Amino acid sequence: MNFNSLSFKPGEDQRKRLQWLMFFRVTVATFFLGIAAVTHLLKEDTYLDTYLVYIYLLIGSIYVLTFIYLTLLFIIKDLLTFSYFQIVVDIFLVTVLVFITGGKNSVYPFMYIISIISSSMVLFLPGGLVAATLSSILYSLIVVFHHYEIFIPLGESILDFPDDSTAVFYYPVIVKIASFYVVAFLASFLSEQTKKSQVQLQEKLVDIENLEALNENIIQSIHSGLLTLDLENRVMVFNQFASDITGLSRSDVLHRHINEIFPEIILPDYSAVEAENFPVSRLEVSYKRKDDRILFLGYSFSILRDKAGMRIGSILGFQDITNVKEMQDYIKRIDRFAALGRLAAGIAHEVRNPLASISGSVQVLRKNLKPSEEDKRLMDIIVKESNNLSLLISDFTQFAKPVKQEKERVNLLKAVEEVVTLFKHSPEFVRLKDIRINIKEDLYINICKRNFNQILWNLFINSAQSISDKKGEISVDGRVMEKGFLPVSGMDSFQESKSILWVALKVSDTGCGIDSDNIDRIFDPFYTTKDSGTGLGLSIVYKIVQDSGGVISAESEPGKGTVFSLYFHSS
Fold it and tell me: Whole-model pTM?
């Protein structure tokens, strides 16, 4: 047991306890020694009898010591030592009382018990143990010395009353009854103090529990991931929002090192904790959940300190900024397309006319000059490549500035069926096994019908070209999204209202798929992984969807296929 934790720290409470001890000492001494004096007077002893003189001296000593104690109480600063001194003096006074009242035959050894209880009340367990040890030693010495007649107690013959004496009957009874009440008073006092302490402790526990509950509610209510780490960077607190973001439960992360949970997180330099330049900047890191979702997290560290200002750990706060990153990418792509569109319009205008002149001039020369077969072949190549360039310029022009048409109410199922029927008669369809359609008849979107046909046609061509075994399929699925759905997180910041109802159209194939390094570039102009093609097909699709007020995204897994998700305003 740790006695230090039980020791009393001197202060105002200690001074009050010492005052109580002085009052109690005087009261008990006056009562019991007064009884002893009265009893001997009943024995017809004189007031100056040797025994009574010792009683008088003992009472006087107690009064004088109490006066000295009161004088020194507000002078001495070391109240703890002062308290031990008084307890030791009290036990020696009890020993003197036992010595002068019969030694081993004295009726006053119970006074040791009263001193021990008083010591426990003033100095708690350490004081009680000191008093009990000293009392045991002194009383044992008196009994042993008396038994072996090393000395004769002063009161041995004085308390030897005649058998017919009234004192021999009443004196022990009065002393013992009085001792019963004194012990009862002290025990009751201790019980009351214990009871009050328990009540106060219970109130403090309730306050602590309420404070802990409030602290826990605050932590769990924070709409950010929050972790607290100890000095060894092990997780001690993991709030609910952190669990929602990471998909991990508290039991999965508690007492684990932070780098086991977030391997990419960079721990700060804690050697700069006391410096004003401790790093508090916000950093970003990618995080892969158990369900293989890739998130982008923004995080920052702060120092966790105790009441004295010493570092006891750190706090890691983080948020899921995946939606913000997607929104940033979306806006960047729009800006990039706008810039490329302006560039494309200028290039197309400057190249189209010279190209037409070259093609026309070569055809005139071929007709008028009667060239050789080799020259004819070269001229045919020039005309063919000029036509290819002309088609490229047409696509480029369409990407730069698609033909704007008035939007209309288009039945999604009928529009898809028309494009599918046409595509089944195209050369590209020979790569496919079938095109499946899963769209309800009552779905309508608000878009230019011609632009929609071109969107779907380009997506079919892209999917067909990714299939080479003639067993692949294309699936077209459509459905209405719930009210309040936003195809790109954060659109509510620039949309006039969330009241727009969106229709989702998914075009998926079972082709070769696109690896993760290329999926973010498939909508960029002139980017293609095919041996042939201009790389403008998906860029044109993206531009038309964007100009129509829609949103398009792609997901793919190599070897399993690609899914294009398009969202249009419902009509």
Answer: 0.42
